[in-house]
Amino acid sequence: WMLRGRQLSSTIVEAAVESTTFPRKRGMLDLAASPAQLLADEGETGFELRPVGSWAVGATTDKDQDTSRVYRFDATGSEHSRAQWVNALARHIDGARMRQASMKSAVSEAWQDDSIDQEQAEYCMKLRAARANAAGS
């Protein structure tokens, strides 16, 4: 099951823990917090979701906070085929990726401030360069 719309992770976790409809489905992955990749297994029903690099802190409800955990799923017995699950998850991953990209470009702002001294200006330039390097990697 999936909750729709923008909700806080804590709200999603609370809903999952209190779930009586789906008592075994009590985990959460925040795809907006960490990029993920989706791979189909060799069989006809299995697939896995793994982090690109590692899961960010708080991106999963994994009790061990395993930052490299691979989540394996099997669509056997599901009303949906593996292809349907993979397509739906791929859309969620792509949507999260697009939201992340749009947020990075939407929060940029610049202005002239004559009260900033040379040391502050140099620090700002170093910070901007570090952010640009991090975004490029």
Number of helices: 3
Q: How many β strands by DSSP?
A: 3
Q: Strand-residue fraction?
A: 5-15%
Main β-sheet description: 3 strands, antiparallel
Q: What structural class should be given to the helix and strand makeup? A: alpha+beta
Q: In percent, how helical is the residue content?
A: 25-40%
Instruction: Provide the residue-averaged pLDDT.
Output: 75
Strand order of the largest sheet: 1-2-3
Per the principal axes of the C-alpha atoms, what is the gross shape? elongated
Separation, N- and C-terminal Cα atoms: 34 Å
Low-confidence stretches: 1-8
For the CA atoms, what is the radius of gyration?
20 Å
Helix-strand pattern: HEEEHH
Tell me what the structure shows.
- This protein is of the alpha+beta class and 137 residues long.
- The chain has helices at residues 9-17, 82-106, 118-136; strands at residues 36-40, 46-51, 71-74.
- Mean pLDDT is 75; it is low at 1-8.
- A 3-stranded antiparallel β-sheet has the order 1-2-3, covered by helices on one side.
- The chain contains 3 helices and 3 strands.
- The chain is elongated.
Essential attributes:
3 strands, elongated, 3-stranded antiparallel beta sheet, 137 residues, alpha+beta, single chain
